[in-house]
């Protein structure tokens, strides 16, 4: 871990904080406000890679936990982790890690399609796999009920994955940060 | 600048070191989940009420802490009534309320700077495999970068508005990320040039 890595980790935690004040997009049909922060988790992984992306999410959540109002609507503090959606917050760490891992894996053949698939796996499959059982447990409802309850967010999450994929691919072309997995193993710094 | 959720005061709760407060909170939450029942819940509610009274934090602050969770709690309440009946619904929602209020009490009686100091003091005693310097650097950098990135976002938004692109999320995010990464490289060089880290 070099100084440069730490700077990037801190900067992406700050980007997450900036995304809280991003204008929320409200879907006209469903009426559920979509915030940009889970998009930030996918980008952290897709732009910084698995390790740095995951660490930047841990850092961001630490700042939230110690009382900074960095979540949408100025929420923050320990309470947000104990609430029914706490699992999704913890899930961002794994979202960033998984998206980062997959993007590193497909770095040389990276295009919109596999960047989108990486975002879907990390930002929807993994995130829901943590967030849904968590809310089922703390709210004492069945996993199925929690799953149905999270469906209104699904459309928005697909849109976020499309945006994340585009940003990841464009940033790769203009300012690549990731060192792909295979080459890293070969050069052993 | 970012303002934390601290509520000014000088009560015993404000003065206890943040480490103990977190420990007490973890213990409190675990007990509420393990000793599931109305009696522990009532005891918990009384403890939280005493805590707010001790800290001198009024009803309006408590309400502000719980307000963002209200609509989710309402959904859970309705879902629980349909699935499991009124009693469990009330129990789950009341427990949530108590947990959130207890956690907010810690947040409102502790400055972010106290937490940061606490973390850094804790890192001094950390075992050698913990990269204490790196963690401390990451936290202080992130606190400094939050207003910086927000300012960058505002600039990008104005620039894209001039081009009529301010409704495109992609047109905002790509410049934001690329500019932030460039800044990151410059800052990293500056830090490396000045310190042996």
UniProtKB/TrEMBL annotation, chain A:
Listed Pfam families: BioY (PF02632)
Cellular component, GO annotation: plasma membrane
Segments passing through the bilayer: 6-30, 42-66, 86-103, 115-137, 143-171
Membrane topology: Multi-pass membrane protein
GO molecular function per UniProt: biotin transmembrane transporter activity
Keyword entries, A-Z: Cell membrane, Membrane, Transmembrane, Transmembrane helix, Transport
Superkingdom per UniProt: Bacteria
InterPro entries recorded: BioY
Compartment annotation: Cell membrane
Similarity annotation: Belongs to the BioY family.
Protein name: Biotin transporter
TrEMBL record, chain B:
Protein family (similarity comment): Belongs to the CbiQ family.
Listed GO CC annotations: plasma membrane
InterPro entries per UniProt: ABC/ECF_trnsptr_transmembrane, ECF_transporter_component
Main localization of the protein described in the UniProt heading: membrane
Annotated protein name in UniProt: Energy-coupling factor transporter transmembrane protein EcfT
Cellular compartments annotated: Membrane
Topological type in the membrane: Multi-pass membrane protein
PANTHER family on file: SLL0384 PROTEIN
Cross-referenced Pfam families: CbiQ (PF02361)
Record carries keyword Transmembrane: yes
TM region positions: 45-63, 70-103
């Amino acid at each position: 871990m070099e100084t440069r890595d730490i700077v990037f980790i801190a900067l992406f935690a700050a980007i997450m904080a900036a995304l809280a004040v991003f204008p929320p997009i409200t879907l006209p049909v469903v009426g559920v406000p979509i915030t940009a922060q889970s998009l930030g988790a996918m980008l952290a992984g897709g732009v910084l890679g698995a390790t740095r992306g995951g660490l930047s999410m841990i850092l961001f959540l630490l700042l939230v936990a110690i009382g900074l109002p960095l979540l949408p609507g100025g929420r923050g503090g320990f309470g947000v982790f104990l609430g029914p959606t706490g699992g999704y917050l913890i899930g961002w760490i794994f979202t960033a890690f998984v998206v980062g891992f997959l993007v590193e894996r497909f770095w040389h053949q990276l295009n919109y399609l596999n960047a989108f698939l990486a975002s879907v796996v990390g930002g929807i499959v993994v995130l829901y796999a943590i967030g849904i059982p968590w809310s089922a447990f703390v709210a004492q409802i069945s996993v199925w009920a929690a799953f149905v309850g999270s469906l209104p967010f699904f459309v928005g999450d697909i849109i976020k994955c499309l945006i994340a994929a585009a940003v990841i691919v464009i940033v790769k072309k203009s300012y690549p940060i990731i060192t792909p997995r295979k080459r890293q193993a070969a050069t052993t710094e | 600048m970012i303002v934390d959720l601290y509520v000014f005061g000088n009560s015993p709760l404000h003065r206890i070191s943040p480490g103990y407060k977190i420990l007490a909170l973890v213990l409190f939450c675990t007990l509420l989940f393990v000793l599931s029942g109305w009696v522990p819940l009532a005891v918990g509610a009384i403890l939280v009420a005493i805590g707010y009274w001790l800290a001198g934090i009024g009803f309006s602050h408590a309400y502000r802490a719980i307000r963002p969770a209200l609509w989710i709690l309402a959904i859970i309440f309705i879902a629980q009534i349909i699935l499991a009946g009124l009693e469990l619904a009330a129990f789950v929602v009341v427990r949530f309320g108590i947990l959130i209020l207890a956690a907010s009490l810690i947040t409102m009686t502790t400055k972010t700077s106290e937490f940061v100091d606490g973390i850094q003091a804790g890192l001094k005693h950390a075992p050698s495999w913990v990269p204490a310097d790196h963690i401390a650097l990451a936290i202080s950098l992130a606190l400094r970068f939050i207003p910086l990135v927000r300012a960058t976002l505002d600039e990008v938004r104005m620039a894209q508005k001039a081009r009529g692109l301010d409704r495109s999320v992609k047109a905002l995010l790509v410049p934001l990320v690329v500019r932030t990464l460039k800044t990151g490289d410059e800052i990293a060089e500056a830090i490396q040039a000045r310190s042996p880290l």
